[in-house]
Design brief:
single chain, 441 residues, alpha/beta, D-Maltodextrin-Binding Protein, domain 2, 2 domains, three-stranded antiparallel sheet, 21 helices, 48% helix, globular, Carbohydrate ABC transporter substrate-binding protein, SBP, signal, transport
Length: 441
């Protein structure tokens, strides 16, 4: 997911030697108990996670070891998953499982014939335990390759309860009500929204939520696949809606200039830091981790969220991201690797990380009681209740040259639009030109 470009530290040793001291890897682990059906086998799992995320995922690996007797080794790829995994395959030292953070990367792996389709057992679990949309995002040309284990909810607006109380407003139900509440916050003496315009990926998330609600899921899918152009009237309408927010100096802390010099962590700090400079910040459920870990906020008490509200009479959007587990054909432990994915498809596996915190599962069979706090529980419930209306982050579905590269493509063009939102049609034309080039390539 895009947030990792800022929040996750890349490992310095990208050679990813698969020894116990490999970059991002802890010691090879096993545990007692279980049926020991995979005793003596070892699987290597590669993924972008580091820090607390890696530590919590290790608990899942340890639980799998306890159940099966298999040993596990995690190695951190940093953000360059495709490049690192490709080099490992070429060097004859491929990991067995990769946790893939983008739909586009999963599709790329499948097109290169790197992946093993999921077993019948795993597919049955996906059919039983997940909304159909997650199977669609894990499939390429009708074959299921990816199991979505960890998800993000990117349709959450975070706020300081004190700021809303001081302004005399409550969490809104519609986009217009949100702007009205923001103006009330501003009138009370605190700028409304901290916008992380220095990071273009946050601006794509703003656009995607507005577009999904305003244009609807069918149009969203068409634009994500580039089967309609970015000059489509629905895009111009969404940009016009977004531009009204960007142009309103009463709503954006520091105005356009201030937003363009604010990165994602800085936007959270402006709301939840020791000296608040804004009342609200839009981004995904991972805002809570920054507010809690960096600024000591109590989630649900002095840091809360409301769902991104419905726009112009549409449905409230639920934009998501996620990490899909895939099995590489060139891995050395095919049986154990597939067994691991079968395990990840169960609510039992999801509960391990849910209890540890910092995690959302798309597995609808997971008991919500497994989550450690009411706020995370509420976020997870919203994701599950959205069912097949969930849509994966659009820019993460696009070629990286358009949807995932700093200083170019959609990121840069939306930053330019934040700087001057006066001509949505011209911005749509520039977006289409960049998209056409990237999708062709």
């Amino acid at each position: 997911m895009k947030r990792r470009r800022l929040l996750l530290a890349s490992c310095t040793a990208l050679t990813l030697a698969l020894a116990a001291t490999a970059c991002g890897g802890g010691p090879v682990t096993t545990a007692s108990g279980g049926d020991k059906s995979l005793d003596g086998q070892t699987i290597t799992v590669a993924g972008v996670w580091s820090g607390a995320e890696q530590k919590n995922f290790q608990k899942v690996l340890d639980a799998f070891s306890a159940k099966t007797g298999a040993k596990t080794q995690f190695v951190s790829t940093g953000d360059n998953v495709s490049t690192v995994v490709g080099s490992k395959i070429e060097g004859g030292n491929a990991p067995d499982v990769v946790m893939v953070p983008q739909v586009g990367v999963l599709q790329q792996f499948a097109e290169k014939d790197w992946l093993q389709p999921l077993s019948g057992t795993a597919e049955k679990s996906v059919d039983a335990n997940f909304a159909g949309v997650w199977k669609e995002y894990g499939s390429v040309e009708g074959k299921l390759y990816g199991l979505y284990f960890k998800a993000a909810h990117k349709s959450t607006v975070w706020y300081s309860p004190d700021a809303l109380d001081q302004a005399g407003v409550k969490p809104p139900a519609t986009y217009e009500e949100m702007l009205k509440a923001g103006r009330a916050v501003s009138d009370s003496g605190l700028p409304a929204f901290a916008v992380a315009g220095e990071d273009g990926w946050t601006l794509t998330d703003w656009f995607e939520n507005i577009y999904l609600s305003q244009a609807g899921p069918e149009k969203y899918d068409q634009l994500a696949a580039h089967t309609i152009p970015w000059t489509d009237p629905s895009v111009v309408t969404a940009l016009t809606t977004l531009g009204k927010l960007f142009a309103d100096k009463d709503l954006v802390a520091g105005g356009q200039k201030g937003a363009l010099s604010t990165d994602f962590p800085g936007s959270v700090e402006k709301v939840f830091g020791p000296e608040p400079e804004a009342g609200l910040v839009y981004e995904g459920d991972f805002v809570a981790g920054v507010a809690k870990d960096q600024f000591g906020r109590k989630i649900g008490e002095d840091a809360a969220f409301f769902p991104f509200p419905a726009v112009d009479g549409g449905e409230a959007p639920v934009v998501s991201g996620g990490d899909a587990a895939v099995v590489l054909k060139d891995g050395k432990s095919q049986k154990a690797a597939m067994a691991f994915l079968e395990y990840l498809a169960t609510p039992e596996a999801a509960a391990v990380w849910a209890e540890a915190g910092g995690f959302l599962s798309p597995n609808k069979q997971l008991d919500l009681a497994a989550y450690g706090d009411d706020t995370t529980r509420s976020t997870a419930e919203s994701l599950i209740e959205a069912g097949d209306s969930v849509r994966f982050d659009m820019s993460d579905q696009a070629p990286a040259a358009f949807g995932g590269t700093k200083g170019t493509g959609e990121w840069k063009l939306l930053q330019d639009f934040l700087r001057d939102p006066s001509d949505p049609k011209a911005t749509a034309s520039r977006l289409e030109a960049a998209a056409a080039k990237a999708y062709k390539g």
